[in-house]
Amino acid sequence: MINEGQVVKIERAKHLEAHKLKLSFNDGTEQIIDFGPFLSSSLNPLIRKYLSREEFIKYEIDEGDLEWNDYDLCFSIADLYENNVKP
Fold this sequence. Notes:
Blueprint lengths: L9 E8 L2 E6 L4 E5 L1 H6 L3 H4 L4 H4 L2 E4 L2 E4 L4 E2 L2 H5 L6
Antiparallel strand pairs: 1-2, 2-3, 4-5, 5-6
């Protein structure tokens, strides 16, 4: 859990397989997150396009945030930190 006043940022992200990324945070915490269930449950075609491996692996770390295509797809840092990405 993120403590009040704590600034948590993602330092690194590594694609593992399918829609899984290993995220490393600036406090040493690491999470392996499977974005597949979230992406496949979405009805929005702008989100579903990231089911394509070619689109999914185009993620970037921008000032500590994980994002795709200039924030076309992004998640709360707290949710990523707590591995709470749900459909």
